[in-house]
Design brief:
Blueprint: E1 7-11, E2 16-23, E3 26-29, E4 39-40, E5 42-46, E6 51-54, H1 56-63, E7 68-72, E8 86-89, E9 92-95, H2 96-115, E10 121-126, H3 135-151, E11 156-161, H4 162-171, E12 178-185, E13 190-200, E14 204-215, H5 219-230, E15 240-242, E16 248-250, H6 253-258, H7 271-280, H8 287-298, H9 302-315, E17 321-325, E18 334-338, H10 339-345, H11 347-364, E19 373-377, H12 384-391, E20 398-401, H13 407-420
Parallel strand pairs: 1-10, 10-11, 12-19, 19-20
Antiparallel strand pairs: 1-2, 2-3, 2-4, 5-6, 5-7, 8-9, 12-13, 13-14, 15-16, 17-18
Helix pairs in contact: 2-3, 4-13, 5-9
Length: about 425
Amino acid sequence: MVSRMSFCGLDFGTSNSTIGIYKDNNVQMVKLDDEATHLRSAIFLNVEEHSIVFGMQAIEDYIDGTQGRLMTSLKSVLGSSLMNEKTNIFNEMKPFSDILGFFIRNMKEQAERAQRADIDSVVLGRPVRFNDKDDAVDQLAEDTLREIAANQGFKQIEFQFEPIAAAIAYADTVHQEELALIVDIGGGTSDFTLIKITPNAQSGQHSEILASAGVHIGGTDFDRLLNYHHVMPEFGLHTTVRSMNGKDIEVPTSYYRNLSTWHKINDMYGREAVIDMNRFLATSNDKTRTNRLKALLEKREGHHLLQLVESSKKGLSDQAQVMLDLDFIESGLSVALQQSDFEAVIAGDLATINRVIHTLLADAGIQHSQLDTVFFTGGTTRINKLQQEVMSVFQGANVVNGDVFNSVAMGLSLDAAKRFS
């Protein structure tokens, strides 16, 4: 039987996803991965057992050599041309929307077990922009996500901007008048909301959303930049091959860009792609490095490598140097990654993030000095350099670090309680 309060707030993220329910008059975050309330947004199609695995277990099974296909950064395909393509799932050609549906269904079922009731209503989070430039593509992404949710059994589907959801969660903890900037940066997007919180004698408080903005920059972009610029040179980036006319030409950068992007790595493992690459690299002028590239693809270790780069990125937030162990490719091989190099490659994206924030304040008619609090949420805000850059013009504001994984879903669940109760 469906309970009266059969609703949830679902944050489907590029890197991690969370879901909250309303139980015993409180928001409760659902445990999705053992004791963790966040689930890595990854699916592994296990060909050996004809089963589907989710989260970190999906990545671990793939890295361990289980036969199958790994798909990560699932949210990034929304609004892209990939949504119109089909892929082989256990010998059946199915659209990518089905794959996203498997993931949403898994989260819904876990929430229903925690709620001990069917859940038919949801407030789904969405970035301020799925696509920075094309309004039609942006709307298509939301419409596609709505259709996927409906196909998994949700009957009432509403959307809320992710930074507004984070603002709702933050406002629920504040008991004095405050002007706050919500900075929500996850794996795929950077989203910002200005919120004015005013105490109210009757309702306890009143929150007014003044403005929101966003840009398609996130932690996976930082992984990609670190991997491409400071790891891929060890695999032949910027080396050359001798062409048939005797001239030296550079190894295509597309190899390395694909290997630095989660959802494009699988494209490098195709039989024809490997044959073409081996043929091209036959006259390499730096066989030591290009042989590492061949080994990386033959062993299908691209996702493993990018996983290690992501871990190194986290370490570089507060360490001057991190050693990246590549012994699984070549005995004794390692790369020293420097904090200064990492901060240099992300400097352009940090500048873009700051420009979006400054434009947001200007459009809302707010001076930097008026801000009381900057509230950070989303895993990427753990990077110290990012917080330093944002706070460089808000010296008088308080810094509040929220729950990096759960703030958005908590706000979505509070929003769902108001809409559906």
